[in-house]
């Protein structure tokens, strides 16, 4: 299959790839340094170089935290009147929307995601994140208490300070923009660390934000490997909050690094979510939705419906149609509008996903579709969308997050068994259920141990609602009130409503 080269994609959009991506501190990009480590970013579809990343070490991380602290203490953003902060954030939305196609291409060149998905969904979502939080802070109210006789107690909020925001490679703009918008809306400053695999779109977002009026130093960017740059950032004593989206094992290390400083953490982690199809469901909708739930973003998405559970009476026709549609998914050039499945994000991740295909066979799963590298591609990290029929939810392929286009299918007999299998997981991020029975939907709502349950719909996110996971899927929630709690400190001020009789100490007896 012919795939457009990096030069062709850039030329089609009038772009020039930066030779080197460096840290952005206090509104300025660091110059190239001969001593710094650099990493190559490759286009996942062709394995051609896109750009190089200059790694920020402890000294650069220190400088970024200092710049964030200086901006915070100056009050240029933290004390800005809310109406002005709202206006700047709305301008960011406008900037992102105006640069939608450019941002989509930059992201696609690093992450390999199909441009159409980025243009239609993820970049608009990134834009909306800023206007949503701009609206929210305009309505944020404190509390007052009047029950204590003679006193009025007022509760107000102050920004927490400087946050470290660590964004992953699977949906860099959509996820980093949620972290940045929810953090700065409340007056905080931050240091962002994108993944070393996907540095470009987030850096461009930050430049656009500065152009929109976010003062220099409010958002700083450090690039580099997680265990080097990320580790230096999360262990830094100048950090007041850490928000991390990524893997559960990495999160454990971050929590340990944060412990000496008692830095509060907000974790959005992985999932192994059940997608349950009951025999009274609208099967056409269930089929369409189940395909979207596992194959969007090539399965590299924390909310993937990767464990499909289907009730016995409809199992065979459902599985047959699901497998047939899987085999027809259009794998290919991320820059082509018709493409449904792009390459995986980087070589190491591709190898990891292929390893899970092998494991499925070793564990006795029946491979119904795919099962290996995609054919017809000389280069690039393409794998086949894969479906494996399994009989035991304790298999590793049913317990571990593959983070690729890989669905297991299990057949169940009744509601009790479906709920037991769905909850038999260390994760608890989301679940999907397809049923025509309202009573069953309400029962699932009470008994499924996950942060979000979608009934008769694929993923549809209401930004007003909390989003996050039970169990190993996270700590805390995204959501306006929840982010207000995480990114602000509450302060109680107690004021007497009249003269106070104060006990006189130290008087002569
Ligand atoms: P990681 O958790 O290692 O990477 C996620 C992010 O964390 C990356 O930006 C990475 O940076 C950064 N990171 C890595 N180590 C550290 C560290 N010590 N301190 C601070 N930041 C760090 O995920 P992997 O890339 O290894 O993927 C493995 C699994 O993680 C996936 O299969 C999936 O289960 C899960 N995952 C979940 C995501 C989600 O959206 N919930 C997103 C990404 C992964 P860098 O890439 O530069 O090393």
Low-confidence stretches are: none
Q: What is the CA-based Rg, rounded?
A: 25 Å
Number of helical regions: 16
* β-sheet strand percentage: 15-25%
User: Quick one: overall form?
Assistant: globular
- Which small-molecule species are bound to the chains here? NADPH dihydro-nicotinamide-adenine-dinucleotide phosphate
Biggest sheet character? 7 strands, mixed
Q: Distance between termini?
A: 98 Å
The mean pLDDT is 97
Task: Please state the structural category.
Answer: alpha/beta
User: What percentage of residues falls in helices of 4 or more residues?
Assistant: 25-40%
Query: How many distinct beta strands?
Result: 23
Q: Major sheet: order of its strands? A: 15-16-17-14-13-19-20
Description:
With 509 residues, the chain is of the alpha/beta class. The chain is globular, with a radius of gyration of 25 Å. Helix 3 crosses helix 7 and helix 4 packs antiparallel against helix 7. The chain starts with 5 loop residues before the first helix and ends in a 13-residue tail after the last strand. Helices cover 39% and strands 19% of the residues. The protein has a seven-stranded mixed β-sheet, sandwiched between helices. Bound molecules: NADPH dihydro-nicotinamide-adenine-dinucleotide phosphate. NADPH dihydro-nicotinamide-adenine-dinucleotide phosphate binds next to helix 8 and helix 9.
